[in-house]
Design goal:
The structure is a single chain. By secondary structure, the chain is α/β, with parallel strands linked by helices. It has one domain: TIM Barrel. Helix content is about 40%, strand content about 15%. The strands form 2 sheets. Strands 8-7-6-5-4-3-10-9 form an 8-stranded parallel beta sheet. A two-stranded antiparallel ribbon has the order 1-2. Helix 1 packs across helix 2 and helix 9 runs parallel beside helix 10. It is globular and about 40 Å long.
Length: about 300
């Protein structure tokens, strides 16, 4: 399996050029497909493989360039999901969407497996996934590094708390300087991955908003986002419906769509080109406004 990845015009996707970009073309929306009963936002809505695949195609039609499929909740403090259960949830979805993509050339989406397990990652890549979105930075299953080196997929490297008992701990440590900590973490982990055989151009960075960070930490990261964009790798932001909007604005989960779209537009204008989203249509509209109203030559 030889998948060559590159960053072109803000898009992190495989060649050839006609498959690069999204809607609008400067940005890439990642549609969230939770094939789980317990995800914080839409757990249980798309629990069967057929329902999840159908929802994924709807998100693609609304503008999602990448379909991110998860079979285990990564909300802080979530109980563990057995490997067999996780595989049973996401592999049929990936196979279905990959088959549709092969049969219909007009379907140019990419498939991302949201998993930290080496076995699930390898099976997902064999089934047709292009990207591994790992919230643990290979800290919970060290064998994932070997899978990444062997398959060389796109890889989302997320800042996390290592050694936690759950995939992403709810614990919030104290940081002397959260920006310095993130920069050191990303530089160290990228060096570890490239030394193992994963090309640097295959790596995308996610600051892990809401994971092991309180509202003040998250605000500092987001207000200093340029300190991360200059690391030379594209950033993926996952702000969609996060508890941060509840902490800052007092919004209930069902009230956070507008705040999510506003934040998506704001950080797109600041140079973040990839956004992981539940409500793709509202985010697409926000990004179209960003595209039209931003002076990209001087931004």
């Amino acid at each position: 399996m030889d998948c060559r990845w590159m960053l072109r015009n803000g898009a992190f996707c495989p060649a050839p050029p006609h498959l690069q970009g999204g809607t609008p073309s400067r940005f890439t929306l990642w549609g969230i497909i939770n094939a789980t009963p317990d995800s914080f936002y839409d757990g249980g809505r798309h629990a069967s493989p057929d329902e999840a695949a159908a929802h994924a195609l709807v998100l693609h039609g609304q503008g999602a360039r990448i379909l991110d499929i998860g079979g285990a909740s990564s909300r802080p403090g979530a109980p563990d999901t057995p490997e067999g259960t996780e595989s049973d949830r996401i592999l049929p979805v990936i196979r279905c969407l990959h088959g549709r993509r092969q049969a219909e050339p007009g379907l140019t989406y990419l498939l991302s497996a949201d998993t930290w397990r080496a076995g699930v990652a390898a099976a997902s890549l064999e089934a047709g996934a292009d990207i591994i979105n790992d919230v643990t930075a290979c800290s919970r299953d060290a064998a994932l590094v070997d899978v990444l080196a062997q398959y060389r997929p796109g890889y989302v490297l997320t800042h996390c708390i290592k050694g936690a008992g759950t995939p992403v701990s709810a614990q919030c440590p104290s940081y002397d300087d959260i920006i310095d900590q993130l920069r050191s973490f990303f530089e160290w982990e990228m060096r570890r991955l490239t030394d193992a055989g994963l090309p640097e151009e295959h790596i995308m960075l996610d600051p892990g908003i809401g994971f092991g960070k309180n509202a003040a930490d998250c605000c500092r990261i987001l207000s200093h986002i340029h300190d991360l964009t200059d690391l030379g790798r594209p950033l993926l932001l996952g702000l969609s419906n996060k508890s941060l909007f509840g902490s800052l604005l007092g919004l209930e989960l069902s009230q956070r769509t507008e705040a999510t779209a506003t934040a998506t537009a704001l950080f797109a204008a600041r140079g973040v080109f990839h956004h992981r989203i539940h409500d793709v249509e509202s985010a697409r509209n926000a990004l179209q406004i960003t595209e039209l109203f931003t002076d990209w030559e001087h931004s």
